[in-house]
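As a warm-up, study this chain.
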Amino acid sequence: MPISSKLNKIIKTSPEVLIKKVFQKTYGKIGQKKSRKSDHEKSTFVNASSKLISKYFIIPIPNLDFLNKNKDYILKSANNSLNHNFKLLNAEFNEICYGMDCRGKDGKKYNSDIIDINHAIKKLPANSSNDVKTIRSLISSNYKPIDWQIDFISGYRWSESTWFKDIKYGYDLGVDVKIPWELGRMQDLPNLAFAYMISNNENEAGNYLTEFQDRVLDFYSMNPPRFGVQWKTAMDVGIRAVNILYTFQIFSSNGATFKPEFYSILENLLFQHLTHIHHNNEYSEGQRGNHYLTNVVSIILIASNFDQNNFILSLLDSYSNKFCYELHHQFLDDGGNFEGSIPYHLLSNELVLVLNNFFKLITEDSFLTQIKNKIFVKSNKSKISKIINFTRSNIHSGYIPKVGDHDSGRYFSIFENIHFYYNLFNQISKFDINKTDITKDNIYEMLVNTDNQIKIFNEFGVSTLKSNFYEITSCFLKLGQMGKGGHDHNDIGSFVLSVGGRPFIVDPGTYCYTSNWELRNKFRSTKYHNTLVVDNLEQSKINSNSLDDLFWLFSNNSDPFVVKSRENIIKVIYNSYIKPTIREFEFDNKSIIIRDKVNIDLSKSIHFHLHPNVKIDTSNGILLKRDNYSISLITKSNYTVDDYEYSPNYGIKVKAKKIIIDMPNSILVTELKLK
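Now compare it with the structure written out below.
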């Protein structure tokens, strides 16, 4: 890493944290060397030291009425899973297997010499051969193995023989390590169990059960613990474990039976996931975030379903304390998450609410009841209430504002047709998952509070207004993660606007992380947001000197804040461009006036990024149209219409239009008239 980047990061880190980091890094390398040697010398497959009891459901199981209402979707999803046709990161992929022909990404395509399962088995650590043979002997003869190590977009492939801490990524164009990680989360498995519940065909039901067993066996045999890309991050290990455990719980509670050999292997696999997360949790003194919160929640959920020996009891006690601490460390006083991203807030919100829902079911176990009482003390309940309020206030009807990074991450990904985390709805509006009248529209009716009140969340850095006609969220975020800005964008003064439940003016999103440094930085740049752009300056400096720089922003001391000058007016004030900059929003029922003020002798412009479905009519001024709604964009200044790339979800980009309005003087007034 170049010296400039190192110095910037050292300056932003407290001396106490720096000392701890140096100590941890030094002794961590010594421990890694010893562990690497040991794992290469003997098999990493070990037997669980506690029995899997699986008494407590991770999340409630929907009843048959609800499942039958969504039968077409569930069966389609389950049958796609049978054929290994997955929808991952909102893109569909056919038959992810060894020797597959990948399409490539961003003009780069890779080819692997591992063409079938036999080649892959030969690459596994030699000391695991007996365990692999035993596990694979239980897989059905007609099962087609999955290649767990491949980025099935670019074609790049990691090796199953590489020790997990030696896995490298972020250095090859077009290669995205999140692709195999997303596959390895196994978030499609619960739908196999739901399909089993509602299937009227005994053979089909048997196929769903067999696929679940084969998939678990395939994964475990081809990913020996601590080898290959699937063990790299404890977050993904935790997501995989809870999805496997939940699927097993659904099958078991509906009369499915498993061979003793499979049950034993499942027990060992889940226990090794548990210990792996514990020994490799993603705690950092300085900038930990949703990864570590996922570690903590996953350990509590998994450990609660094992027999309570001393090790399990110590884990539950320790990680319940950690959860209580992180609840207040990672969520601000206004309920927003400290990472500076609304999508990441929603992921962390889901983690909190899954755990909350889990403990609601605990009534008889004395030790878990103690844990429950520890976690849900009055102060924690108050914080959870604030988290829910923040979420409710900042979801637009039919649209999640992409403020900050958006990587499409979820803890559970079950009902895509519902569009969002159903367990979250359950908590926010006392929503009953088993009601049969659930639709995407009536869920959002419950979530959206159209009280025409401007709500300001000063700690997080957003304000929001919801009326019966439009919803607008504006940004004035300080750098999150205690100044690291790992998931922030240069979006001070930016806003997103929905009219009639249709996104009109949008945040372009987050196309990628490590697969393309140039595009990563483009999507988080000032020019890619609906705000004032001064010359080619960035609100906060973006470095591109190292992989780590992709998750840092270096503050220009913008110190943004918002003031409410009248009931219908707010001002965002910041100092990104040496001189104070003001963006004022004035709201009326069907009109929004934006006033930009900065006295600086450089070229200036403001940008409006439009949703791809918005049409532009410039025959008489600027008219933005979508369905039966329209916005007149009124300005006295010169403007241009340009193309840009919109990323609706991680890994996807489509062409869309943006309007750029020149700002020749120190003040520019723009009006949006809504129709």
